[in-house]
Amino acid sequence: MVPRMPSSPTLVLETFENPEPARDYTIRVRIPEFTCLCPKTGQPDFATLHLEYVPDRACIELKSLKLYVWSYRDVGAFHEAVTNRILGDLVRACAPRFLRLTAEFNVRGGIYTTVVAEHRAEGWVPAQPVALP
């Protein structure tokens, strides 16, 4: 008998209230174990996802993000499509001021693929970077 797993993949992204909604700040999340399937061959594609976002009213809860990413393990998807789908799901879940998702796929047939997708809330303007001496 196979033991029951304590959790399972899900497409539900949970959020929590931003503790500092009056301040622009960046949350960076590195997800080194993303896996989906090549829609042409069915072979696994591995990637590291780099999520960077400036929250507005809500932040992504990390356990739900882990289970969400897990749900792609057996899904066939082109790199461009899956990156943009994940970006769209994240934006719908937390409505950030800004969100960038970078998907760095491992080599396949001598080719590395990196897909970068971004969302910027209407009217949001980032602060100018501070240059220190």
Question: How is this fold's topology laid out?
Answer:
Blueprint: E1 15-17, E2 27-37, E3 44-54, E4 58-60, H1 62-70, H2 79-94, E5 98-108, E6 111-120
Antiparallel strand pairs: 1-4, 2-3, 3-5, 5-6
Write structural notes for this entry.
- The protein is of the alpha+beta class.
- It has a single domain, classed as 2-Layer Sandwich (GTP Cyclohydrolase I, domain 2).
- The chain is 19% helix and 37% strand.
- The chain contains 2 helices and 6 strands; from the N terminus they run E-E-E-E-H-H-E-E.
- The strands form 2 sheets. The chain has a 4-stranded antiparallel sheet, covered by helices on one side. A two-stranded antiparallel ribbon has the order 1-4.
- The protein starts with 14 loop residues before the first strand and ends in a 13-residue tail after the last strand.
- The mean pLDDT is 94.
